[in-house]
Structures are given as C-alpha cells and as structure tokens.
User: What shape does this take?
Amino acid sequence: MLLEVKDLWVHHGRAPALKGVTLAVSEGSLVALVGPNGAGKSTLVRTISGLKRASAGEILFDGKRIDRVPAHKIVGLGIAHVPEGRRVFPDMTVFENLRMGAYRRLRSGKLMLRDSAFDDDLALTYEHFPRLKERSRQRAGSLSGGEQQMLAIGRALMARPRLLLLDEPSIGLAPRMVQEIAQVIAAITRRWRVGILLIEQNARMAFRIAQHAYVLETGQVVITGATDALAQNEEVKRVYLG
Ligand SMILES: Nc1ncnc2c1ncn2[C@@H]1O[C@H](COP(=O)(O)OP(=O)(O)OP(=O)(O)O)[C@@H](O)[C@H]1O
Ligand SMILES: [Mg+2]
Assistant: This one.
C-alpha cells in the first residue's frame, strides 16, 4: 500500500481535530476525501506531509512509518502537497515556478535542467495544462485563480511525486474551470502513475473521478467505500450530492 493512515489522532492545542482516522491510498489510485468545513481534512494532509505532529496512531508510506519524519524529508520521499489557496511564487514566471517544482531533483543531481527527463516532465505538464504553456513567460501573480491552481498542481508534478495531496483544488473556481481541473486530475492519475488524495467540498466532482472515497465529519471517518456505491447511498446523496 502506498499510503496507510491508522487510527490517527491529531490535536490543535487540547482540542482533537482528528479522532482515530484510518484511511489508505493504493499506488496510482485516486481517492476522494470529502466533508464539511472544519471536519479535519486539511489537518489530515498537513499531518501526512509532516507540517503537523500526530498525537497517536501511525502513518505509513510504502510500508514505512513517516509520522515522525520532518516535512522537508517527507517531500524527498515522494509526497507532494498542494495546500489550500493555490500558493505560487507570484514574482516568478510560470516556467520558473515549474522549475522550482523540480528543484530537489535538480539540486540532488538526479535531474539536469537540459536533461531530457526534465524536458519530458515539462512537456507532459504542459500537455495537461496548455494554458500554462501559452503563459510560460508570464508572471505567476498575474494568472487567473484557475490558472494559478493549475500552476500549483503542475509545480507539484514536476517533483515527480508518488503521492499527491490536493487540498480543495476547485474552491472558488467557476463551474467550467472546476470541470477542467477535474478532468486534468483524472488524466494525471493515469499518466503519471501517482496516487492522489483529493480533498473536495465539491463531492459531486470528486465522486465522478475518484474510485474510492472517505467522508470525514468532526474528525472521524463516517462513511467509506467505492464511489459508485457511495453515490447510491441515501444519506450521502442527501447531504453531499443533493
Ligand atoms: N492552527 C490551528 N489552531 C487551532 N485550531 C485549528 C488549527 N487549524 C485547524 N484548527 C481546527 O481544527 C478543526 C479542523 O480544521 P481543518 O482545517 O482541518 O478542517 P477542514 O476540513 O480542512 O475544513 P475546510 O473545509 O474549511 O478547509 C477545525 O475545528 C479548526 O478550527
Ligand atoms: Mg481545509
């Protein structure tokens, strides 16, 4: 299993934000995590990426414990996190942002800037996001919100992660842009053989592209299953797909 979260507890101060969460993402699969505001979704991915410390439970990546590993090393293991609010480097160009994504691999000598591997990854990223290619020399801060979200995802891909954590990529985007992002996320799962944990408040969108889903409410997984089965569940339909 690529990612396993076992009976995870996380506190903010004394208040528990996650109360015994168990979840898994298998290699190359797309898993959705949905739930209302404040359910603990961001806390979960922040804990997986080492930004927040667990109080109890385990996180395993490739079968190895990572819940005590600091954030900068988590990235090196192959876990990329696109946080809420599409953070890009606003004063750098689109291309420079994408190059930053590959920075670790470039610096470690695993990749050269003139390397065909770098070119291939860049070409594939531009294939998913043709708008980024057209705007490669544009300042990232001048992109639209949807374009910045695409850039944030593209930059994460340039690190060639094995696990991609996407925290609400569709938030604040117009319906057409949501559809576009959804299609690209589905295509990325197929083309990059990367496991994706997709956090969404737009459950309808997430269920359409994910194979498996978890519903998180007040720090606990209340429902889980294959998305086609969950889409038939009366309560899920009423609360999340209504
Ligand atoms: N840094 C923090 N300090 C104190 N409490 C926090 C902190 N971050 C989150 N919380 C609390 O933890 C709970 C879970 O928050 P979290 O951000 O994980 O929810 P979420 O599911 O991502 O919500 P949203 O959909 O609104 O992004 C909330 O009650 C929130 O107020
Ligand atoms: Mg959140």
Notes: The chain has a mean pLDDT of 93. The domain at 3-240 is CATH 3.40.50.300 (Rossmann fold). The chain has one domain: 3-240.
